[in-house]
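Long-time lurker. I teach an intro course on protein structure, and each term I like to show students one example going from raw sequence to a predicted 3D structure in token notation. This year I'd like something fresh instead of my usual example. Would anyone be willing to generate the tokens for the chain below so I can use it in lecture? Attribution to the forum is fine with me.
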Amino acid sequence: MTRSSAMTVKDKVVVVGGGPVGALAALYTARRGYEVEVYEFRDDPNAPSASEGKLALIPVTISERGFRAVENANVPGLMEDISRHSLPVHSRMVHTRDKNGDLKETSMPYSSKGDRIHIMQRTSIGQRILLALSKEPNAKVFFDHKLVTCDLRNRTATFENVKWKPQDGGLMESTENMKVTEQTSKDAERTKSVTYDYIIGADGAHSAIRKQLMRETNVDYEQHYVDVLWCDFYLPPGPKGQRKLDEAHLHVWPDKERVFIVLPEVDGSARGGMVAPINEFRRLKEHPEELEAFFDSSYPGVIPDLLSAESVKEQFFRRDHLSLMSIKCGKIGWEDSCVLLGDSSHTMPPFYGMGMNTGLEDVRVFFEDFVDPAHREDVYSSINTFCPKGVTKAYTDYRIPDVQAMTDIASDHFAELKEGVPCPAVIARKKVESELQKHVPGLDYVPMYSRIVFGHERFSVALKKDAQQKILFAGVLASLCALCVALLVQAGAGVV
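-- Reply from a regular --
Happy to contribute to a lecture. Here you go:
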């Protein structure tokens, strides 16, 4: 007899991955009364990590979709806690040089309504969701556990108890640092097999659950690398703790095929990312003496205003150089026992700031729009069954077009960041869009960025509406040009 056949016992759910998406999925599960276990490859993020200095960290932003997903977990104080540890920004600050070679700053608001995105330290949101999860009596979290095998047909998974030590590249057995788990003896088995009724894969871009799904069934799969690398830079506050950059802006240094992005953080520091073609990274590694001149040419003002040349060189060689890629999956679920959420089902470059937000929204949509309604509508399904029949397929059929659309949008946005931002035509277009949104509400003209970041409609719908708006914008522009020509002709006729 399976667990789910016993009417007095609620289903057991296993979540692979304890990042923000996995932790939120577990929280949603626990709040609905199901037993849930989370298995995370890395250490407890609430404990100090010796590896932080080496990792390439991409700063995160949380916006409306992410906040809504967190809020709807219905955990008192969680939303306020996350908001308190985030920094709201309302504009993008573009750093360039003017025609005289002097440093120039151009502020570009994200919306005409004063909407804001919120910047958080990368581990902060995951820490807070995990802390909320630790208070749920029916939830357990196992850190330092790596998925070894998963039998989707028989609903069993095997994990290896490991210690993640990227500083020397080694993995070692770890039992003393297990958090929120039962204690094990030194001679305890290194592997642990668990049975489950439902498994959620939230284990990131290199998902082991996704790989197992692809072994079980045909999955259309696309993976594309962007021909650039990302290098993380830490920008400390000034000597007296003062900020070196305006905290109300996300800061961008665009330069053709490269860009430098800096996000201020709540503690006065900032986190930056250098994005440049792979061959330039290789050249700079071979010729470190060229690094300062490269920054001065491509990212003017970063040296010495924000970082010393010595600090740039030290961080460039110490930190990982991270590949950026996009992933699309044609199938993100297995029967009524497995679903992929977050980066495991869709991976996108960080240029739109929507990777984590899309993953958090995955959780909300899966539970609120599919799992919960199925329990309300199917009087024959037991409340003890986590995922009623047909729910996984219904969710995946609905969600795939949206996450694939968002992946395309994020990939395309790099062109605007590295090339279009400083272009006068782009700046003028954004101003016209803002005026249309503000003064002609009947057109329902909402810029694409606002639809995605500050709205809640489906990504696929937003993409279609943006295509229609481009036609409308072209018509408005043509009408304005015709009006200008007519006025010029009239003025000329008056002179004659």
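Some talking points for your students: The chain has 14 helices and 22 strands. Residues 459-495 form the longest helix (37 residues).
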